[in-house]
Protein 1
Amino acid sequence: MLYNFRESTPIVSYVKAIDLWMVFCIFFVFLTLLEFSILIWMRAIREDAEKDNTIEDKNGEDIATRRKNLSESLSQHSTSSSTLRAHGVFTEIVEKYAFVIFSIIFVVFNIIYWTWLLQAAKYFDWDVNATHTSIGEDD
């Protein structure tokens, strides 16, 4: 899509407003995909730890032995239960607030971008009647 825009616009030595818009949108999509993959990775870590706990529970061990084995297996994998809880809390926070934060960032960017673009183009100073009258007089 960016290629099509660049092909249909004149070649200039400066950055155009459409370039800024397209780069920001692509960057925003990249950030969203990055956030999604981090959450999937963290969820997989938590599910692996829970799976280890479930397997030990099915073996019919008593609670004290199971906790001891679980703590040993977690320390062997260099992942403690507090770390797993921290991953879980972080994942829940990101899932809850990422949409809101990304939406706010996008709205703020739009406000800044369109205000700047319309001011730079002197859109608000444009007199429609003068332009319409001068077009008719050229004939």
Note: The CA atoms of residues 17 and 117 lie 7 Å apart.
Protein 2
Amino acid sequence: MATYAEFIQQQEEQDGVRFSFNAWPSSRLEATRLVVPVGCLYTPLKERPDLPPIQYDPVLCTRSTCRAILNPFCQIDYKSKIWVCNFCFNRNPFPPQYAAISEQHQPAEIIPNFTTIEYTIMVSEIDIRCKMQMSLLEYSL
């Protein structure tokens, strides 16, 4: 079994993400006692050949002030088909396309090996036309 330090090093190499702390402060008092600010170095173009291509929109937290994305660190209730946001602890239902979700049939975004996911968002033709019209309007002004 690897040590915690080896686990953190492996995650940093795999995802291209390094935090100033490996555990978030659990209270406001603990946060005020931090000497070094909580920060993150992120490598956005890190090559990950093992990542599956995700061709659908991410599942977002339904709380309007949060909007976090479903990830391997969220709590999941497979029977009730809900997930708990690991940032705001809001209980969110899975969208209809996740009806077949189970412990044996998991989408890529909750598989522990895929802590980094690249989504290819499909933009509708209507969105493209609206963006083009907005660009033309800005250009004409």
Note: Residues 130-141 have pLDDT under 50 and may be disordered.
